[in-house]
Predict the 3D structure of the following.
Amino acid sequence: MVDLLSDSKQELLLGNEAITRGLFEAGVKFASTYPGTPSSEVGNLLEEIADKAGMYFEFSSNEKTAMEVSAAAASSGVRSFVFMKHVGLNVAADPLMTLTYAGVRAGMLVMSADDPSAHSSQNEQDNRYYATLALMPMVEPSNPQEAKDFIKEAYEISEKLGLPLLYRTTTRVNHARSVVKFGPLKTDTPALGHFEKDDPHFVNIPAFAVQNRVRLLEKNKLALQLSEESPLNRIEGSGNIGIITSGVAYCYVKEFVSDVSILKLGFTNPVPEKKIADFIRGKRFVIVAEELEPYLEDQVLRICAQNQLNVRVYGKRDGTLPREWEYSPDTMQRLRVLVKVKEPAVPMNKTQMQLPGRPPSLCAGCPHRGIYAATKKAVGKTPVVYCSDIGCYTLGVQPPFRTADFIICMGGGAGAAGGFAQATDQKPIAFIGDSTFFHAGVQPLTSALFNHHNIVMVILDNRTTAMTGHQPNPGTGRHFGGIDTDAVDIEGVVKGLGVQFVRTVDPYDVTDCVKVMKDAIDFDGVAVVISKCPCPLLLKKEKRLEKKVCVVNQDDCISCFTCVRMIACPALIKKGEKVEVDPNQCIGCGMCRNVCPKKCIEVRE
C-alpha cells in the first residue's frame, strides 16, 4: 500500500487513493461514511491511517447518520468529509437539504461517487441535480490528479460560502490510476472544535427556515461570482468550434477530439454563466459533452437564450451524444460528422480474442447458498414472493435459487414484504444482510410488527459488510483508530423489538435450516431467521479459514446430482455421470455433504 502520509513528490495512485491524500493536504480532521462502490477504498484507507494522521474516522450505520455526524463536526469548526456512492446520497438527502439552510462553520465536502453504466449499482442516477436542489456549490474532478488537487480548492470554496460542497466523482475517476504529484500536508487545522449556539441558523423551525432560505440564495450569488473567477473552470485550445465538458468526459474529448476550443468546467454549480456566454459568442456551433443527464447542456441552452446567442448547441437533447451509460473512446466517434476525431488504437467494441462470459456468482462455500437451498426446499409449492436487498445475496436471483423477485434499495425488500403481505395471498420472504439490517432493516421490521404483517425476514449475518470490501458494521464491533466496541447482537435487537419467532441457524447445516424455515413460513405474524456464518473470504483474509476439502466417494455416488441442483457450488463439477470436487475452489464447508441423500461426500483435512 502506498504511504499516503509520506513526503514523496509523486506516486502512482488509484483515484480514491488520490482523494484520500487530498484530505490530508487539506487538513481534514473528521470523516464518515457508509461503504459503497465506487467510494469504498477511501474508507478502507482511512480505517488504516486516519488515526495516524490525527483524523477521526467512522463507518456510520448508514449515509444519513454519516451526513449528520460530519455536519456536527463542520458546525463546530472542524473540517469534515462525508462520502458515499450515488444512491447513498438519497438516504442522506434529508439532513443535507436543511444543512444548506443552516450552513457550516468549517469546510465540509460531501463526496457523491456516481456510477454511470451501473457497474455495481441499481441505477445510474446523476447526482449533479442534488447540487441545484440543495442550492449548494459543486466541484467535479476529471482524473486522479484533479481528484486530489480539487479537494483543497473545494474546502476553500466551502469556507468562503459557509456551505457544504458536493464533490461529485464517477467510477472512472475513483478507479482510474495515474501518476499523482503530491503537495504539502496541512497540519494546522483544529481536530477539536466548539459549537457556538445560534438558534436562527441551526434550529430550522419554520420561522427561522424562511429567513435562512433568503440567506442561502444570497450565498448562491457569491457562489456564482466564485465560479466565474475559479481556476477550476478554464479554456483550452482555440478555434471557432467549442466543446463544453466536465468530469471524465473531458478526458475523452481531450484525447480524441482535435482542432477545437474546450471550456473545461470543474466548478459546476453554479456554472460560470458569463464565462460560458463569452465562450459561445462567435462560435460556429458548440458541443456539450457530459455523461448521463443533459445537466450542463440545459444550462448552456438557457444561457444562450438569455444572452440572445444564436449558436447551435449539439449534445444529448438532439441525439448527437447518448444519454445512457458512461462514455468511452467509441462515444467520441459520434462527433466525427462535426469535428476531427482520432480513431482509438483498439476499438472498444472489438477484442483480439473472444473471451467466455463470466457472470458474477456467489463464492464457493458462501453460506448464503445453504440458506437459499433450505428456503427453496421448505417453501415447496407454497406461493411466495422473495424480497431481496442490496448486497452479495442479491446474486440469489440466479438459478438454481431464484430467490430475488423484488429489489429496489437498501432495506427496500424488508419494507416491500409488508406490502406484499397485505396486498397479495402470497407469503413474503425478505432476505437482508447484517450490515443492511443495521442500515435500513430495523425500521421496516418495526413497521411489520406494528402492522402485524405476516412475513419472514431472513437476516444473512456473514459477520462483515462483504460486498464493498469487508468493512465493519455495528454487528461486528469497531476495532480501529484506537476505539474498541463490542458487537451489537442482532438476535438481541430483534427480540428487543418484540419479535416472538426468532431462530438463529448455521446455513451450512441445510437439513436443520429446512426445518426452521418451514416453521417460520407457517408462523402467523413476523418471523425472523438469522443465518449466522462468517464470509469465507473474510476468514481467508484474516487467515482463519481452516484447510479442509470435500471429497466424493465415487463408489457410493448414485449420480442423482442433488448436491449440484441444491447448492450449485462452483467447486462441484459434473464429469459425465459423476460429480467431482475441485480442490482449488472447495473450502470444505460441508454443505454438499449435508444435502447428499447417500452421505457419500466427506470432509477431509
